[in-house]
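Hello again,

I reread your note about wanting to compare the complex against the isolated chains. To keep things tidy I'm splitting this into two emails, and this first one only covers the full assembly. Below are the input lines as submitted, including protein chains and any nucleic acid or small-molecule components. They are followed by the predicted structure of everything together. The single-chain runs will come separately.
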Amino acid sequence: MKLAEKLKKTPLYEIHLKNGGRIVDFGGWALPVQFSGIKEEHVGCRTNAAIWDVSNMGEFIIEGVEALDLLQLILVNDLSKLYPGKAIYSPMCYPHGGVVDDLLVLCMEDNKYLLVVNGANIDKDVEWIEPLVRYFYETTFRNISDQVAQIAIQGPKALSILTKLTDYPLEGIKYYHGVQDVPIAGINCLVTRTGYTGEDGFELYCKAEDGPALYEAIVEAGKEDGLVLAGLGARDTLRFEASLSLYGNELDENHTPLEAGLGRFVAFDKGTHFVGETALMEEREKGLRVKLVGLEMLEKGVPRSGYKVFDETGEKEIGYITSGTFAPYLEKYLAMAYVPVEYSQRGTKIRVDIRGKKVLAEVVKMPFYRREVKRK
Amino acid sequence: MNYPENLKYTKDHEYVRLEGNKAYVGITFYAQDQLGDVVFVELPELGTEVKQGEVLATVESVKAVSDVYAPVSGTIVEINEELNDSPEIVNNDPYGEGWICAIELSNLSEVDALMGHEEYRKLVEEGGD
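Full-complex prediction:
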């Protein structure tokens, strides 16, 4: 495998090879794009459960007397709402409002925070955050990405599968909460009830060297529950179907969180200044220029990332697709696209340029998929 | 992998099954396996004239878009409309029900120049990408 030699490998690389994963270059990482097939893995996650190696994700620790102040400055969401064991999602913006990265922050204890960032953005994020740390009293920044293995287990049976491997009452961990030092199959894990699929599920963090044993224990425990090994392909289609943004597609330095439909994560009222605040306020007052919308194809064709979008007449180019494919669970051809706000109303007809053919589509509601939540 | 003896193959992983003057064209087992779950096939139009090497059809999987090149020159005389509703047939039965179209040959010698099953097997298994 010439391909894999120059790529970074996660601690689970050898297991993926053994399990027949099809390895691809994913932003410099050798990771499996699929095992049994994207559709099967996708539907398997929605109906039973699926497991991923997401050790390519980056982990930083920000700790110290003014750790919260630093986070409040660099992130647009309000971190003062966190308490030990509580997690929050936030975009991290440039002064002009474009997005550096989007990440998860878990408060581990007072003045100690774990940041989980996109694997492809680790270097950029370090360069962005590290120089600021010196302005905060007794506050440190550590990039621990290489020391951590991260495993995601998602789907309606994720809880029952993991429960077999621990005495800890996992069902008591609420959505967007996390607990440290949980033994899963005897391996010390940080467990968060978070995910990127639109399903219930958990993300487990352990020492890099424990990753393989943890993964194999879960796979074994999940066999009788229909747990599927899943790769990056299904991870992408699942997040897409649940209309979750992907950095590099929906999010980039040219679009603001407001344009991406992430306004609820921008805490204008948090009472402290944050990077991007002025530009985002201005945009909010003036009104958005473009907006991320959901599209469903009305005529046959597969909309893909980068395809141009036209108005209904097909004469005027108005935007482009950020993500699009056949959504395996909903069985529809769907896309997300940036279009001027005047085209963002539900029901607006537009056309997608698919290899020169302008194929009719319609603006539809997002998220495309939302799981039914059982009420107590 | 699977390389039926009665077919002819191209380096771009199309196959041809000759029936008289008609060439049934599809993508090989290897090609569909590489693509993954096929979710859309853009078929050529009936009656179109194609030249060897031109784009004949497009097969799309969840992740990828792949052009199918005409292995031979001629006129499109049949298309597999089943693929409009069930593109996954390309995965399930690439050499059978998963054919894409039939071309009435304008130049029979083009078929002779295509690869036999042994040569194609070598290309896939030894020359692999």
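For quick reference: Residues 211-222 of chain A form the longest helix (12 residues).

B.
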